[in-house]
């Protein structure tokens, strides 16, 4: 994993949700090798960077689409605005983020949606406490 292009390729495959077996086949290595590679700080940093770039691209697309649709917002009914929101941002956001990334994402979503963020997206701290045993 000394070639920068391979690290970038690995980060891309991880960020797009490819499994260890698929990545192992892509690199012609055993899945245990993929597990070792994914623990490397340089690879983890690249995965974080890849995820951030993907998020930025998605946000830019959503922003552009919303801007285009909302140019004539005065002509839209409330139901139409809610429909646009549902089309552009799903109720549940599935992301595989480190705790620090999840916290930053939750803060951004809370800013966008208000205090509660997106329904169904909880951080570990928001989980219901376990009852007494």
Short account of what is shown:
The protein is 63% helix and 0% strand. With 133 residues, it is an all-alpha fold.
Core attributes:
133 residues; mainly alpha; 6 helices
Characterise this structure.
With 133 residues, the protein is mainly α. It has a domain at 91-123. Helix content is 63%, strand content 0%. It has six helices and no strands. Helix 1 (4-15) crosses helix 4 (41-70). The longest helix has 30 residues, at 41-70. The protein is elongated.
Low-confidence stretches: 121-133
What would you call the shape?
A: elongated
Query: Which quaternary structure do these chains form?
Result: single chain
Which percent range describes the beta-strand content? under 5%
Terminal Cα span: 47 Å
Continuous helix count: 6
List SSEs in N-to-C order.
Answer: HHHHHH
Which class best fits the helix and strand makeup? mainly alpha
Helix fraction, binned, reads 55-70%
Q: What integer value in Å does the Rg equal?
A: 19 Å
Largest sheet: none
Mean pLDDT: 76
| β-strand number | 0
Layout of helices and strands, plus pairs?
Layout: H1 4-15, H2 20-27, H3 31-38, H4 41-70, H5 78-88, H6 99-113
Helix pairs in contact: 1-4, 2-3
